[in-house]
Request: fold
Amino acid sequence: MIKQAGIVIAAVLSFTSFGWAQNEGRWDVSLNAAALIAKQTSGNGTVQIPTTNVGFLGTARFRFQKKSALEVNWGHGDDSQKYVTSALLYRIPTIVSEFSGAFVVTPMETKRFKPFLLIGGGALVFNPNNTFIGGNAQAVQGVRQTRPAVLYGGGVDYRLKSIFALRLQYRGLFYSPPDFQLQGLFTGGRGHMAEPAVGIVARF
Reply:
């Protein structure tokens, strides 16, 4: 995790340095804390219930027009994917990573407030770090899965002092829930993860 975070931070800083030199005032980077709130899905005799947790979200955004920008995101969080079947209860602690990009529109801007809307896509990576079945504690092995995701959202930046701003936003991701290639865990449902987030933005 530390190695991955270091790579992402180095990439963001590299993009920021380039933006500062070539397009002053067009770049911003943000570090955010986000709640990971995924909905329950069901199908094929299985109910999937993700737990709620808090994660980290890093964003780099480039404004190529006054009201338009592109952003890239990297997110990380831990939760448990619970599966209820007629016979057993599975609880799978999971590391969830997000890799995404989005088109961002700013419909208006004042001295202090900068609201925005975003739409995009990417991938959610579900990596089980431990797997067991409740009750008899029988160990089973799941595999890491990558799911395509559709991203949407909106929020507002509130300008603070100097180059900094406070960002409040809501993000949502549609995706197919993981089954970790374990028999009986495929629901066929449509997953959704809500991510209300708050963070600090630095503009260059």
